[in-house]
From TrEMBL:
It is an enzyme of class 5 (isomerase). This is 4-deoxy-L-threo-5-hexosulose-uronate ketol-isomerase. The keyword Iron-sulfur does not apply. Pathway: Glycan metabolism; pectin degradation; 2-dehydro-3-deoxy-D-gluconate from pectin: step 4/5. InterPro entries: KduI, KduI/IolB_isomerase, KduI_N, RmlC-like_jellyroll, RmlC_Cupin_sf. It comes from Sanguibacter antarcticus.
Length: 279
């Protein structure tokens, strides 16, 4: 587990590209037959990538979270961004097709993640887990791809027509803090999250996926009047503190997992900024 300590917007103007990437870009989460994690002290969110290729992988207990098991004091949303697979939680098996989401509540003890077609046409599963501290236990719940609350956003004229699937949210799967879903851009649309916004009460993370090896996302971050950018590849995540915008444009079609944790779970609790006012 890699530690990322919290930062202030006052730090950003003095950062070069290397430091921006070191603090806010999570690379290397998905390595064959490994479990890799990043702990950000912004709202104590943990990002985990699990890539079971040759055998199932058990979610470990990282010493940094000081718990007997990972879910002793935490909850998580897990999205499968690879081929089909299964997640077994305390003996109960859940099948996750690509894009599906499993919520795992506080108190779960044994979590095993596996691929169903590692050597076949669809390839191995790849699980992206976003976790936050939890004060109570909610039941483990599966939402299949496309079966959450679906919102159509944007406009083809501004190249940001997109389908947003809300999985874990205040009117969907219950959780203590985690809010999670998947957004897919329509053909010909490349911009996400326009107009850009912040939500000063929550930390957010974007995991971009579905890109070819030579495609990239230009992700815009920072305060609206002091923006910077990160060049992001497939299955790389961006940590977005509460004071930062989070918007991007791709060189090819893509999807992304968005996940939040913090003060509240209101999806529309955000402060928007017109593109003409950004710098």
């Amino acid at each position: 587990m890699e530690q990322r300590y919290a930062t202030s917007p006052e730090h950003v103007p003095g950062m070069d590209t290397t430091e921006l990437r070191r603090r806010y870009l999570a690379q290397g989460l998905f390595v064959d037959d490994e479990v890799n994690a990043v702990y950000t002290h912004h709202d104590r969110v943990v990002l985990v990538g699990v890539s079971p290729v040759t055998a199932p992988l058990t979610l470990p207990t990282f010493p940094e979270i000081r718990s007997d098991v990972f879910f002793e004091h935490r909850e998580a949303g897990i999205v499968n961004v690879g081929g089909p697979g299964t997640i077994t939680v305390d003996g109960t098996e859940h099948t996750l097709t690509p894009g599906s989401c499993l919520y795992v509540g506080r108190g779960a003890r044994d979590v095993v993640l596996a691929s169903s077609d590692a050597g076949g046409e669809h390839g191995p599963a790849a699980y992206y887990l976003v976790s936050a501290p939890a004060h109570t236990a909610y039941p483990t719940t599966l939402v299949e791809a496309g079966h959450g609350t679906v919102r159509e956003l944007g406009d083809a004229l501004t190249s940001n027509r997109r389908t947003l699937n809300q999985y874990i949210h205040e009117n969907g799967v219950q959780s203590c803090q985690v809010v999670m879903g998947v957004t897919t851009l329509h053909p010909g649309s490349m911009w996400n999250t326009l107009p850009a916004h912040t939500h000063d009460r929550r930390t957010e993370a974007y995991l971009y996926f579905g890109l070819s090896t030579d495609a990239r996302i230009i992700h815009i971050m920072g305060e609206p009047t002091e923006t910077r950018h990160l060049v992001v590849g497939n299955r790389e995540a961006v940590i977005s503190p509460s004071w930062s915008v989070h918007s991007g444009v791709g060189s090819a079609s893509y999807s992304f997992v968005w996940a939040m944790a913090g003060e509240n779970q209101s999806f529309d609790d955000m402060d928007g900024f017109a593109i003409a006012d950004m710098r």
